[in-house]
Design brief:
The protein is an all-alpha fold and 203 residues long. The chain has two domains: 5-139; 156-198. It contains eight helices and no strands. It has helices spanning 5-36, 44-48, 52-72, 79-103, 106-139, 156-166, 175-182, 186-198. The longest helix has 34 residues, at 106-139. The radius of gyration is 37 Å and the shape is rod-shaped. It starts with a helix and ends in a 5-residue tail after the last helix.
Length: 203
């Protein structure tokens, strides 16, 4: 049996967001070093430098989350939203790789480029993935309804036995009384009453 599309959509969503968050967390130390610019540890400038990356990352995450929700309803964002997203992504990349480019180390450039680039690609992919998976959820066939439990039919003999068990000497056998004690239909109650009278019940 194939895995439900809704479950796959939730897994893909969680994995993409986990990757984005881990990538942004990795870039935090690089951005802090870039912003601190050699300031002494625990100095005001060094401590304030830790605020730069969360500031940019929170704005980026807010934009990505908003795009994800609006894409679900087919609403396109304006130019300022895309400009803000790409500005925050570009700022993250530049601050992460600046020291590597200055040092002229290709290995450091690659190392510090991978997390921001993964965030870039995932940021663009997560919205479309969510949109397409939502369409797949709507297109997926719904599960067939569960079959109703079969209800055993009560035979004439069963109704008659129930009426005989409920009859007492002071009971006047009528179709209404038969329906009351057995729950049978109106048409069947007349036949049952006749059978009881034939058995010796009072009419």
């Amino acid at each position: 049996m194939s895995e439900p599309v809704e479950r796959v959509a939730r897994q893909v969503d969680r994995l993409c967001w986990t990757g984005i968050l881990l990538g942004l967390a990795f870039t935090m130390t690089n951005v802090q070093q870039f912003a601190a610019a050699g300031a002494p540890v625990w100095s005001l400038a060094w401590s304030a430098a830790w605020l730069l990356d969360p500031m940019v990352s929170l704005v980026l995450l807010a934009i990505l989350r908003a795009e994800q929700v609006t894409a679900r309803y087919g609403v396109r964002m304006g130019g300022w939203v895309r400009a803000a997203k790409w500005f925050t992504l570009a700022a993250t990349y530049v601050m992460n790789t600046w020291s590597a480019f200055v040092a002229g180390s290709a290995a450091l450039v690659v190392l510090h480029s991978v997390p921001p680039l993964v965030v870039f690609v995932a940021a663009e992919a997560v919205t479309e993935l969510r949109d397409k998976l939502g369409a797949a959820v709507n297109a997926a066939p719904s599960a067939p309804p569960a079959p109703l439990p079969s209800v055993p039919r009560t035979s004439f003999a069963d109704y008659l036995a129930a009426a005989r068990a409920a009859r007492t000497p002071d009971v006047k056998v009528t179709p209404a009384w038969v329906r009351e004690v057995t729950g049978c239909s109106r048409g069947l109650s007349s036949r049952l009453a006749a059978a009881l009278v034939a058995d010796g019940g009072r009419s």
